């Protein structure tokens, strides 16, 4: 397992400076928000070429795959394809996607199918088949991210993402685990991680209060033991608030996490 961090958490006047700081603090990878990718792509490519930091992942906010109409859903598919191409070119693991935020937007077709989540799941599986082919062509994964009940009604536990990955059955359709959301939704975090082993390609790290690991009541020891048991080798990216000076707090957090790695 390797540590990564989102670029906007790290100080620096440009991406090259940020990557240099990441390396100094002990990180090995960088994650960038999807909405920043088009603007940052060229600078990122050039900065990565002269750095030991690798590109990890593109994070979320890439449209609504379960939006109310074809136009919205096609826009999300096309944005994700663009992100996958950029990610592939940078040698990254993949593009994280939250299928939808908030309540359902597709209509409930009761009484034909009373459960709107069944309709959403069917739509998503078909979309992921399209995205999975593109992902394979560009050599990056499409990565499903389960959130928590306060952010979405759909896919809130790792087992839900596993079900979708199994149903799609494509090599480049994978999933991730975010410690903040798992802390709210999972009954047993180590067991959930182990059960998702076949599809797990990324992790987001935060403490229980979404502050840097070490500032809440999250247990990192047992989940990290589970990750070791399943042979998890990919990135774990920090996605959280920094309480104070990043120059001090980020290297301190790396030292804290390395104790469990
Ligand atoms: C949102 O809470 C989150 O965890 C992000 O990673 C969304 O992609
Ligand atoms: Mn996350």
Secondary-structure map with pairings?
Elements: E1 2-6, H1 15-25, E2 29-33, H2 37-49, E3 54-59, H3 70-89, E4 94-97, H4 116-138, E5 141-144, H5 158-168, E6 173-178, H6 179-185, H7 189-195, E7 200-205, H8 221-229, E8 235-238, H9 246-258
Parallel strand pairs: 1-2, 1-8, 2-3, 3-4, 4-5, 5-6, 6-7, 7-8
Describe the fold and architecture:
- By secondary structure, the chain is α/β, with parallel strands linked by helices.
- The protein has one domain: Divalent-metal-dependent TIM barrel enzymes (TIM Barrel).
- The protein is built from 9 helices and 8 strands.
- It has helices spanning 15-25, 37-49, 70-89, 116-138, 158-168, 179-185, 189-195, 221-229, 246-258, and strands at residues 2-6, 29-33, 54-59, 94-97, 141-144, 173-178, 200-205, 235-238.
- The protein has an 8-stranded parallel β-barrel with strand order 1-2-3-4-5-6-7-8, surrounded by 4 helices.
- Strand 2 (29-33), helix 2 and strand 3 form a beta-alpha-beta unit.
- Helix 3 (70-89) runs parallel beside helix 4 (116-138), helix 4 (116-138) crosses helix 5 (158-168) and helix 7 (189-195) runs parallel beside helix 8 (221-229).
- It is globular.
- The site of manganese (II) ion has 4 residues, from loops.
Structural key phrases:
single chain, 261 residues, TIM Barrel, eight-stranded parallel β-barrel, binds L-Erythrulose, binds manganese (II) ion
């Amino acid at each position: 397992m390797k540590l990564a961090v989102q670029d906007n958490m790290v100080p620096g006047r440009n991406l090259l400076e940020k990557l240099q700081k990441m390396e100094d603090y002990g990180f090995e990878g960088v994650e960038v928000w999807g909405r920043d990718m088009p603007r940052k792509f060229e600078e990122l490519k050039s900065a990565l070429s002269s750095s030991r930091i690798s590109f990890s992942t593109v994070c979320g906010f890439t449209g609504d795959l379960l939006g109310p109409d074809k136009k919205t859903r096609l826009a999300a598919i096309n944005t994700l394809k663009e992100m996958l191409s950029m990610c592939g070119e940078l040698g990254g693991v993949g593009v994280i996607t939250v299928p939808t935020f908030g309540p359902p937007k597709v209509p409930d077709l009761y009484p034909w199918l009373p459960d709107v989540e069944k309709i959403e799941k069917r739509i998503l599986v078909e979309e992921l088949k399209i995205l999975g082919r593109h992902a394979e062509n560009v050599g990056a994964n499409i990565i499903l991210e389960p959130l928590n009940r306060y952010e979405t009604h759909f896919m809130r536990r790792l087992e839900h993402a596993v079900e979708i990955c199994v149903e799609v059955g494509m090599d480049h359709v994978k999933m991730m685990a975010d410690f903040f959301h798992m802390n709210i939704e999972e009954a047993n975090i180590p067991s959930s991680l182990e059960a998702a082993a076949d599809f797990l390609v990324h992790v987001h790290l935060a403490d229980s209060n979404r502050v840097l690991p070490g500032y809440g009541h999250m247990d990192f020891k047992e989940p990290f033991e589970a990750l070791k048991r399943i042979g998890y080798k990919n990135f774990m990216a920090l996605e959280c608030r920094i309480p104070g000076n990043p120059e001090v707090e980020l290297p301190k957090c790396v030292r804290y996490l390395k104790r469990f790695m």
